[in-house]
Amino acid sequence: MTPKLKVLLAFFLAVSPLTVLAAPEKAQALDLSRHLIGYLSIAAFVTAYIFVVLEEITELKKSKPMMLAAAIIWAAIAVVYNQQGQPELAADAVQKLVEDYGELLLFLIVSITYVNALEERQVFEAVRAWLVRKGLGYRSLFWITGILAFLISSISNNMTTAMLMTAVVMAVGKDNPRFVALSCINTVVAVNAGGAFCPFGDITTLMVWQQHKVTFRGFFALFIPAVVNFLVPAAIMHFAIPKARPAAIKDFTRMKRGANRIMALFLLTIATAVVFSNILHLPAAIGMMAGLTYIQFFGYYLRKTHREEPEVPTELMERAEDEKKVRPGEERFDIFQKLAQLEWDTLLFFYGVVLCVGGLDFLGYLGHASNFLYGELGPTTANILVGIASAFVDNIPVMFAILSMNPDISTGQWLLVTLTAGVGGSLLSVGSAAGVALMGQTRGIYTFMSHLKWMPAIALGYAASIAVHFWLNAELF
């Protein structure tokens, strides 16, 4: 059996007897890893995950099977603990998981609401239109979209960022499939790398920060390794990009009223969350909820000062010598519409993952996995293989499993697993939500096989980023 396969199986199967569980509150917990209930829980989780993987085929939202599996696992655990006369142990364990999820949920609700508000104010569309109008060469566009994807994904949803950049690529390069395919690969690598060095860049980095494994500033030690992860494959693919220059396209989009101020409020919200966490030593989610009130008050101002204006005809927009003189019509701003547009399927899937993985931990499986990964293999090998595993398994359950194991490792190792779990999904097109979304957006131009062809270059970037992390951040190990 290969080491990679062992890592995947270690999350689900017990490989050795467990004597002591890591968390203090589980000192009296039962080891049910070889009990019928344990096998039932494994079967429920694996079955649910199969449906998650087949989501594109079955068209069944991934949250549904995962939430059902969570209910089955904890119901099974409760039956055993009630029989043993210890119902409070199971109740306390699942309550702690719900509290952890609730804190992350509040954090994500605010972050995604701001991103949705910026999208509604046409900030991203304005960026896309500006790039399309420039008439850049294919190679210039390849690099600009990649760099923007890297930077934007540090504070925005990876999938949203990837789809924005691909819209630019498709608009100017739809007649050059090779350019589109390579740019999509570049974008997937860029958004995954950009999300790895900032707590706001990805759910996995957010979880690590919320669990106080790394400080807010500590994540920026991964900036250079993340840049290397993006630059190495991009530099190799650069020579395969055509040197031609597509014709410029007239496309005028202006940001709506208040867009710049909402961007400023988003930065202020991030600063508030950092102050609450680092200075006041309160959950960062409280600071984020305070930040939600910023945009709520500003939304109130926008509604009170709103004026109905007619939509500007496209012909007038195109003829305008200065598009800044033309003000497009705008809809009335409503913050609760932005809340309704949250990615509830992803958020509920995350709930299912937290309770499923937490249940497997309570049953004893993650204790065995931790013994094997961080005891027998060692933290460096384990963390590198975790990144490879994230190319096959969604990085959210992988990272939550690592956090549930809570291995005694250095800050440098926590940064390493944050980096590898984030960028490891770039190895395959199906390794991240961004890759899956772009395969659907490009309609057969960017495919699993076109991405696989460049996997050696991406793997080289993966290895180089790890080496640079060890070199630059040696004092953290």
UniProtKB/TrEMBL annotation:
Bilayer disposition of the protein:
Multi-pass membrane protein
Its signal peptide is 1-22
The cellular location(s) given in this protein's UniProt record come to:
Membrane
Specify one Pfam family.
Answer: CitMHS
What NCBIfam families does its record include? Answer: NhaD_1 (NF038006)
Q: What's this protein's family per the entry? A: Belongs to the NhaD Na(+)/H(+) (TC 2.A.62) antiporter family.
Protein name, UniProt field: Na(+)/H(+) antiporter NhaD
Species of origin reads: Methylocaldum szegediense
